[in-house]
């Protein structure tokens, strides 16, 4: 059973460790580069791609404006179709409902479709505590689970692993929890997939209970939708007697027509495909076909708090495509584990702090960005992630200011700058001091690319800031001194200020 993100250090410390792993950086660069290229190719085929993005944004905004109405409509539609609807205010309640259903059916195992919502609430850990094993059936999730690892990407949770590493995991771990991998297993993708398929087949065939998430839930019909690429989802959604779906309340769509827009946006943005190989839809219970007991858990777990934030609520438009991760220069270099959450990358940097609330690790995430804006350019539902990052940074500063009786170093620096610049005499004195410092520090300056003279890391509180920036050497002569030395900058011009200084008038 894989662990949890509990105890992951703040992003700067976790990122520094990740940056020292050259194999990780090679794996990430190759994978994200491949996905970026595929996405760009299929998006380029769509002449009205921007109109589709605008339509997706409008649909999700309409949902968020009228969320209680559509959730109530969804509940009625699901109930009419024979499903049982549960409401979960937080992770503990959602986990309790799933555990109760599994125990009621006397099973000690469940098979799972890849689901961000169940990872968010750490369902596997809760099931294990109750003596129930949760088998991940998505290939990448299986790799993560067998490797006692953590997911590092929304679409490809094992993106940080290469084929050789996957082969070693299969050979060493599969036999401990089921059918073992063949001794002659190679790292050829076809052979790895074959080993996973053989390992999982017995679990599909004997499982009584399956757990899924849902990409979308249609309010007018009660239809849930899962898109995937391997067929494991189809097996989980059709073979077991009982199906439990944990669905974030923001996943609701008003109409089936709205689903048409989303199924054009999602595959191109996530896997770089025109459509997903498997798109599964189910509406309650169909006698004699598929699971005969269907439960849908509508999960809040902080989402209503996000909805209450006028700037941050746009994060709830997210359709979990991972396009923002694949273009982010920060994610490509650090990977997903550094974010300390099941939601890594740019979307995780805004969604995790809002869902989880303030803590040292969450408060570091809004700073895990260069604010380059690439994430907004590729987002299929036009979430302005940079704007939300800036908004959350200001919130972190304000919360720390309220919680601390002493001003921060940054506050003191700005107050000192304000006091200095409010007086011309104080400003002139500061310029003289800077010039003196420039003459002294210039002796140990180094030359940066482009021929600029720059200082090394600064001491004290400024050390962290200067480690990642080139600090130019202060000018030895201030503008005021230059002005005086050159008689107002007009010595050789014969301009009017010089004539007036000598008593003349024009």
From TrEMBL:
Origin: domain of life: Bacteria
A GO molecular-function annotation: metal ion binding
Region Disordered: start-end pairs: 451-506
Domain LUD: 71-299
Compositionally biased intervals (Basic and acidic residues): 478-490
Biological process, per Gene Ontology: lactate metabolic process
Pfam families: Fer4_8 (PF13183), LUD_dom (PF02589)
Keywords, alphabetical: 4Fe-4S, Electron transport, Iron, Iron-sulfur, Metal-binding, Repeat, Transport
The 4Fe-4S ferredoxin-type domain, residue ranges: 315-383
InterPro entries named among the record's database cross-references: 4Fe4S_Fe-S-bd (IPR017896), 4Fe4S_Fe_S_CS (IPR017900), FTHF_cligase-like_sf (IPR024185), Helical_ferredxn (IPR009051), LUD_dom (IPR003741), LutB/LldF (IPR004452), NagB/RpiA_transferase-like (IPR037171)
Protein's recorded name: (4Fe-4S) cluster-containing protein
